[in-house]
Amino acid sequence: MEIDTSNVEGKIVTVRLDGRLNMVAAPRLKSEIEAVVEAGATHVLVDLTAVPFMDSSGLGALIAALKKARQAHGDLRIAGANEQVITVLKLTNLDRVLRPYDTVEEASDGW
Q1: How do residues 43-80 score in pLDDT, each as one tens digit?
Q2: What is the model's pTM?
Q3: Is 20 contained in some domain?
Q4: CATH number for 36
Q5: Is residue 19 part of a domain?
Q6: Is residue 77 part of a domain?
C-alpha cells in the first residue's frame, strides 16, 4: 500500500491510498493519520479511489483515525470507495458514522 499525504488548505489534509487496505497496511495508515493530526491537521480526507479491497483491519484503522481527528475537534471523511468497501461499511453499520462520499471534491465541500 502506498500512502500519499498532501495539504489542501491550512488544517485540511488529503491522504491518498493506493493498494489493499488490510491488516498489513492498516497500522501504517493509522500511524500516518495520527501524525498529521498531531502536526495540526484537524480535517482529514481519505481518498480510497485506488483501494480495491478493505478488510476489518482497514476499517478499524479508519475508525481509530476518525476518533483521533474528532478528539482534535475535527473530522475525517472518506471518498471514492468502491462497492466492496461500501459493503464492509454497510454490513457493520459504520456507513452512518463514516459516510462515504463519491468524490474528493464532494467530501471536502463545507470544510
Answers
A1: 999 999 999 999 999 999 999 999 999 999 999 999 99
A2: 0.93
A3: yes
A4: 3.30.750.24
A5: yes
A6: yes
Closest to 29 in 3D by CA, of 52, 54, 7: 54
- Reading across the β-sheet that carries 2-9, which strands appear in turn? 2-9, 12-18, 43-50, 75-79, 100-101
User: How far is 22 from 13, CA to CA, in rounded Å?
Assistant: 22
Q: Which three cell numbers stand for residue 103?
A: 468524490
Q: Give how many domains the chain has, as a whole number.
A: 1
Q: State pLDDT tens for residues 10-52.
A: 788 999 999 999 999 999 999 999 999 999 999 999 999 999 9
Q: Is residue 111 part of a domain?
A: no
C-alpha cell at 15: 491522504
User: Would you state the torsion angle of the CA atoms of residues 87, 93, 99, 101, taken in this order, to the nearest 10 degrees?
Assistant: 10
